[in-house]
């Protein structure tokens, strides 16, 4: 494949730096992780966005988190139709094979995917309406929630509200998976909804008792 | 939603630690990233596996990497049928909205998804054959590659070979996306295939000139 | 200009090597950097000394660092008199045009400029005392700090202490610039003082809480 | 100084990576460099711009280059008036203390400093005209050259021509330093003018026999 090129030098250099420090200092642990298999306590579902500092925020570098990242941290509803469902596969593997105890859905401010959905709903993103737009079809998952925020006058507030609805949509869809619902019922599995404010470094948690997000 | 529970205390504590140190020390940069938008140079596609230390290996905590993680770092072929395609949406967003210069597919040793595909192909995983198995249907993407490794006598070697074929399958499928192919043809986009040995901390790179992987 | 000669062959050869490898492999990124403009997170002020391996130490080859190098990494105090101030121009551009989040002043062992100042202060460098000595007049910036180290008996220790004072002098002078002070006050800009031991590969960081340098 | 903050974690990590690899592998050489002093063959004068990949282009990491970086790689004329002249101090040290054999002035495309001078000359940058603008006063060094390019109709071509004039201005000013002129006359010192095209990775060299720049 002529498309494949040598790895950029800065990545090669950083790898060698990691190999000579972190790996060397912790290799016995990494060897055990490889031999005994992973045993993550928590599954994380978050956005692909390069500004999400998950491993930094939660020290997620020691085999603790099974991490799925996609556009806008969305989980589709349960649909066992034999077609490709990458997110559903990740959830299934985390719950039925790895038996994670927690699933965290982490949304964030300034989300390009949510913004795209917002613009579609306002009729300002015809290119996302096209059938061939993968981002558009993916963000259709969030469209039903737009009605809940459309009356918010301020656009920044409306976008933030939609980002939070995106987290709730994923939590709701997670519960349509029989193995998730069963884990919750049997009290083996807990779900969590978070929203991260990139600029302020804030973290808000969904609180079902007041049906709202509150700062940690 | 009764399923939603308070965030585990160890995560709350780590967040507060991060907030008081890393965030406080670097907030001006995070504010700029939020205000000016992300500008990642590279998209990373890797596995959800909790043992993949990507951010550690490559220092991926400064807005440099747009990260998609799914089971077995698989990319499906281009299929613009209006259905949900989360991985395709992530690739589309990275290439057409963010204009990344590089896409890195990072596979790894001890991959549970690849093992599942291997076992299906050997007839030892009937539960994955079921139409309702999301992991099974997802790993079908890799099945055509099994023929290339089935003659390898040693199972560990066969699995490693299949993990590497999984990286190649994703690279090949990436090239079926018109916007990826165009980026490659116009020399604006380069693809890279890596395989990480968890226990040894090794990193092998696909070299198209010899059609094989070689240690960095 | 008869003084201008062909570029030495070893430089021509290295350039062609870089052009055929690093540039070719990464040109899409370099093109984006040119088109979209630089967005460095950090300004570095260090010495011209050929033994300072900044880009090697910190991987400074990807558009991340705005770099000013002069004799002994000195910053003069704010003096807006309409005269030429090259270092002040670099600081102004970094802070007011590029909005860097960090300014790092990196001093080092075996610094010829600091040694010159030291010798002047001891009366052993008459040639530097001459009004026409650019190095002498430049190093006058450090002279007030000599009193703080002159009681150190061992010359090597005294020189190292003066090299560290040189970093502190620059940090103090940086704060006399209104736009630097404002950035610091508004918490948009952080300053950092480092001292590098060339022979040992060491890096010491100024810690204001103990008013001293400590190894990283 | 409350303005001084801990070094960002990504820099700490990269430093430790460098320490464990490059330094460890080459420490004997670094120890010699520290003990015996630097002996650079060439002085480089280039811009602070974060996109100038000098060490990458020329493999400049082994004590070979004495590097001065300022805004727009400008050298002022010789002016031994006892005032602060950071660039002149760097040139003096390189030539009279280190006895370099070559001085390379490296300009580049997309130069913000040159753009500022250009805009001042067109009357479009009143903020740079202010006496207190360090960048403005520094770029005054280039103003006399504007007349040579102002008739070029296309702005991009005009800017490129001015960037090249900036290299020539520095070469001319270098020759006003008696110790530079003497080195050239005695054939101990050669000057070189380069212009780097960031997007294309190009390098053009000033050729005095045709008074123009030609690609390497």
What does this 3D model show about the protein?
The structure is a homotetramer. By secondary structure, chain A is α/β, with parallel strands linked by helices. Chain A has helices spanning about 10-35, 55-60, 85-95, 110-120, 125-130, 135-140, 155-175, 180-185; strands spanning about 40-45, 65-70, 100-110, 190-195, 200-205, 210-215. The first copy, chain A, is globular and about 55 Å long. The N and C termini of chain A lie far apart (about 50 Å). The mean pLDDT of chain A is about 95. At the C-D interface, α1, α2, β2, α3 and α6 of C face α1, α2, β2, α3 and α6 of D.
Give keywords.
globular, alpha/beta, homotetramer, 216 residues
Give the topology.
Four copies of one chain form a homotetramer.
Chain A: H1 9-36, E1 42-47, H2 54-58, E2 65-70, H3 86-97, E3 102-108, H4 112-121, H5 126-129, H6 134-139, H7 155-174, H8 178-185, E4 190-197, E5 202-207, E6 212-215
Parallel strand pairs in A: 1-2, 1-3, 3-4
Antiparallel strand pairs in A: 4-5, 5-6
